[in-house]
């Protein structure tokens, strides 16, 4: 990929996250990259084309992150904890802007944008990965339910973190989720239900 094109995608990704897709203009992206509008249009003709590239970048980064967690964590439960604790890892940005995946998916959903399903693929990548981890923990029967429970926790906590900007609340919620996960480790038969655990 051309260096300028990669820079445009990176800057657009950041602006879409901080300002929203709708409120980000070609001019703002071009100014942030430091190129002329003419040079900008040489790489991308429409904002939807940039959006598509941004989503692909996010998918690639997500898969890379999950692969890294696979490499550094010895057990599936440890890998799920990496996901749960991402709220702390990315606290500085989440408290200001929320979750990048959730905010973009919500905005595109409100617009009934044709690329809303493409944006939602990032959630699907996370869900499929989490299902795999729960199956490896012996939770075959409830693996998908557990995966969705973790995703719902992440999105709900990120939203409230952005609303109240209360780090202690986030820490408490993470601790509760880690305790729930530990209870699953002790019961690998898959008998736990997510209902009522919190």
UniProtKB/TrEMBL annotation:
Pfam hit, one: TetR_N
Keywords: DNA-binding, Transcription, Transcription regulation
Domain HTH tetR-type: 2-62
DNA-binding residue intervals: 25-44
SUPFAM superfamilies linked: Homeodomain-like, Tetracyclin repressor-like, C-terminal domain
InterPro entries: Homeodomain-like_sf, HTH_TetR, Tet_transcr_reg_TetR-rel_C_sf, YxaF_TetR_C
Coiled-coil regions listed: none
Gene3D superfamilies in the record: Tetracycline Repressor, domain 2 (1.10.357.10)
Protein name per its UniProtKB record: TetR/AcrR family transcriptional regulator
Upper lineage: Bacteria, Pseudomonadati, Pseudomonadota, Gammaproteobacteria, Cellvibrionales
